[in-house]
Amino acid sequence: MSIRHGLLALLERGQMYGYQLRSAFEESTGSTWPLNIGQVYTTLARLERDGLVRSLPESEAGQRPYEITDAGRADLALWFATPISRADRPRDELSIKLALALTTPGVDVRAVVQTQRSATMRALQEFTRLKYASDKPEDLPWRLVLDAMIFQAEAEVRWLDHCETSLVRHRPAPSRPATQPEAVDRADEEARR
Predict the structure, then answer these.
(1) Which residues have CB under 8 Å from 75's CB, separation 6+?
(2) How far is 47 from 166, CA to CA, in rounded Å?
(3) What is the Cα–Cα distance from 104 to 154, expressed in whole angstroms?
């Protein structure tokens, strides 16, 4: 998730200061991706530097609200109109972990798969419980985020099933005995004669 664009989208609703932005972001995502207040203010400083938001005078309570600029609106509209590329997403740590487990001596790859499946199933159950905990219309953004997490967890379980089936079918190539250095040296010497 782009914090930059998330904050711009929230400022499109109206002026807000840092803590309001953090609360609104977490409310919109059901606290799925909690934001550190430092991230909010660092991002606001960059947005202001880039001319996408402007800070307003401090309130009597000492809070400095921000508002989106026309350039910010244009940037936000472009973000909404542009699909997210698969290359723009972070690396899939689980895929990397399993690929390395297959090539690392002494790792029980089936145990790695089973451990992940158990954790993913627990997460899937929790996401599903949270989804049905509330059906208020104002919870729709949060439920959509939960739906995405549910679909991702279901896909991960299917992929782990596929990995396990592939492991059962996998027949590693027989390991070749290491060549004795002395024999190689003698063979090289005989070839040179």
Answers:
(1) 5, 8, 52
(2) 47
(3) 27
